[in-house]
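Step 1: inspect the first sequence and its tokens.
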Amino acid sequence: MQTAQKIQTQQTNPGEQHEHLERKLKTRHLSMIAIGGTIGTGLFLASGTTIHDAGPGGAIAAYLIAGIMVYFLMTSLAEMAAFIPISGSFSTYTARFVDPALGFAVGWNYWYNNAIILALELSASSLIMKYWLPNVPGIIWSAIFLVLIFGLNVLSVKGYGESEFWFSIIKVVTILIFIVVGLLMIFGIMNGHTGGFGNLTKGEAPFKGGLLSIFSVFMVVGFAFQGTEMVGVAAGESENPEKNIPKAIKQIFWRILLFYVLAIFVIGCLISYNDPNLLSSDLENIGVSPFTLVFKHAGLAFAAAAMNAVILTSVLSAGNSCLYVGSRVLWVLAEEGKAPAFLKKVNKGGVPVNALYMTTFVGMLCFLTSLFGDGTVYSWLLNAAGLAGYLSWLSISVTHYRFRKAYIAQGRDFKDLPYFAKWFPLGPILATILCLVAMLGTNYGAFIGDKIDWYGILVSYIGLPLFLLGYFSYKIVKKSKMVPLQEADFSRE
């Protein structure tokens, strides 16, 4: 099998085509790539809806359950990525240890997901800018931000890493300030709140709606964690992947979980779960974001403008990461013969430029579909991308199970693993079950009631038949089979 690992530090001759990525990402870049890809509007805006639907206790429980799932997924990814550090890791690992057809479907699924989310972030940026300049057409802002994001990615991988580092710093600092201000208000040290924990037990709190409500918000919470896997895609461009990947993954998991749980706790204490503002928070109404409301109660008059700026950086950060990840996944698909060969081209800065152009172009086309008609095509595209993150996570847990089994079957020494994932096989099995629960429950309401909502089912799960189409198409054309454990490919450089 052709190895995707062409990430070397060798010198190229003057006339030689440069077709390898370069290891320029440091540990701080990797940590912030994962934080930047995860913490965003899901926390700053959607957290209010989560608390409203499940109560503060139910929201925290949902985040903790999702956190357990993500912990096992990330330790599984760390074991594979530290031992075989390659870009576009999901599709390559799955092709090597499960089935090339599944690797093909996973790779194209993840690329498509990032191209669509890039389009979503472009739409979001135009909505955010209306806060300051409502009379400027949104498409102008989207075009400006697309050029900015493309510029950050096309120069070098270090340019992307640095920009993502500073985008993420802004978010982290905002969350830390929010938590500190919130705790001071809860304990009566700052004005703006009576103090105490009364809202945690008010009415139906802390667990509004019981177990079913926790389940209902679990899918939303799971989506909020998506992006942590980006650090695995960046493994191939890490300076010292054997040390940096495990270190980054261990750091980011606990930081993200702490940020989410503490932020939800503070919001639950300071804002009642039945406050109607919690349901009104969106990109067009940032003034009632839970974060904005808490800062306003603390007497910070500029809270809305400040949070609007923070959320803008979150959107740009997400778009930046999606373009980076999408281009790397597409490049590795081309390296493995699963995408057109012209996508393998890499410029002198170590950037897969043709894959970058393609991802940018598709993201721009998807964005333009939101401007015509009633946006129906765009809505379908977004729904198709909705399950893509869970499908990627599912591939990580299933592939790690096969990775470890193949490692044992080939008589390899565990001492050679730079990072050893604990709780095997319980970890990947539990993560697989929770991923399946989240996927199947994406729109469980469509199955409940007097009449099954077939249209709702189709819209919610359209991503699944697209994924299966890719899988079976490759399997039929290439006649691929499941990889025997004894023949699994552990080659590295």
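Step 2: inspect the second sequence and its tokens, then contrast the two.
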Amino acid sequence: METAAILPRTELLQVADIVAREKSIDREEVILAMEMAIQKAGRSKYGHEHDIRAHIDRKTGEIALTRHREAVEEVENEATQMTLAKAREIEPGIEPGQFIVDALPPIDFGRIAAQTAKQVIVQKVREAERKRQYEEYKDRVGEVVNGLVKRVEFGNVTIDLGRAEAVLRRDELLPRESFRQGDRVRAYIYDVREEPRGPQIFMSRSHPQFMAKLFSQEVPEIYDGIIEIKSVARDPGSRAKIGVISKDSSIDPVGACVGMRGSRVQAVVQELQGEKIDIIPWSPDPATFVVNALAPAEVAKVVLDEELHRIEVIVPDDQLSLAIGRRGQNVRLASMLTGWDIDILTESEESERRQDEVKTRSALFMEALDVDDVIAHLLVGEGFSSIEEVALVPVEEIAEIEGFDEDVAAELQARAQTYLEQQNELFEARRKELGVTDELAALESLTPAMLAKLGEAGVKTLDDLGDLAGDELRENLGPLAMGEEEANAIIMAARAHWFEDEDAEAKD
């Protein structure tokens, strides 16, 4: 029968209640910490090898200190176990795995034992408090909160949030921004981590989403979901761009964010220490969005390369400096906002480049097809950019060019095919000379020209190719490079033979 030494301690429950309220943790966590402290003190008095347990009655506060010994067939540890036969002498109906419980007299806490118990309780309460803080703030990532500056160390600001502390690191502050103890701070929670020293709450005032959340607080239409912030780009403390779209055609998203006489945007600007904000109407069409993002600069023409995710923007000569912005700020923010790489050219630069391309392509056609400059210019004018296009398009398309007929078209195509065959023979010879293997040459997507280029870069076997990443392959091929997806497919095809070799070894 289970008996225990009882020590009435009704004040323990009062202490547990007070600590639970002050630390905002569960009362049960505090009582468990007290039980562990008493248990540790009991083991110090009766021996650490014994299984000493303490229990505090949740209603009366009475403390029961007991020793537990397990009933087993064969004893391995005499301090915590006893034979089943001896156990049945004490308690006849006991089964293996059950415990004989002996009551122990109440312990008198000495100075050292009391200090140890206090340390255990403090430690357990601190752990419970940290757990509570983590559970409370882990789901608040993405919120803007207010707090008071508790201390500033080496530029890093510790902020008191009331029920927790947060860190605002120096690199997350706005430039030239400083705080003193007691200052009120508003910042964005971007990360909460559970670490051995407690939950670490990281805040930022330079994060792009900080500005987005400020707009959400200032603009009711954003808070209600009528206007959506699609993207944000910031150069903290200097300038920012924000792309917005309205789900209600009757509401102007830009006007709503600006507010009456600029009241709404000015409230955000003041919080961000005067940071200039461009509010841009978002568009699902990348070209339109890029043009809007480059405002106030005017754009004459855009050329998209979806494969490289790059967009070429042509602006009037007098708009170049405005489009680029001070130290490239305008185009950099526009690129961050849209997610596209932006190249800016003036109209004169674009015209000069186009003329150079015409000259280069005309010279290529004149040499490869053995034609005069008139025919070469006609081909370039119709959009032909390579010998491969002339060789592979239907003859009818070439015959439709003004001044050409089917005979001329057929002759031009035959010359283009002959030229390509000769070039492929030269590249094939070069490939063998460089030692590029036949297994590598067997990959369908690689042309003889590409194989020669890879051989010059030291890529000569399937293993060499398989060791590359897709962007490394494209870099080695230079102007001959294919798209990113195709490059990755070629790499995977080269790596496939690794698994074939493993299968063959396994069968052997």
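Step 3: confirm your contrast with the notes below.
The two ends are 69 Å apart (CA to CA). The longest strand covers residues 184-195.
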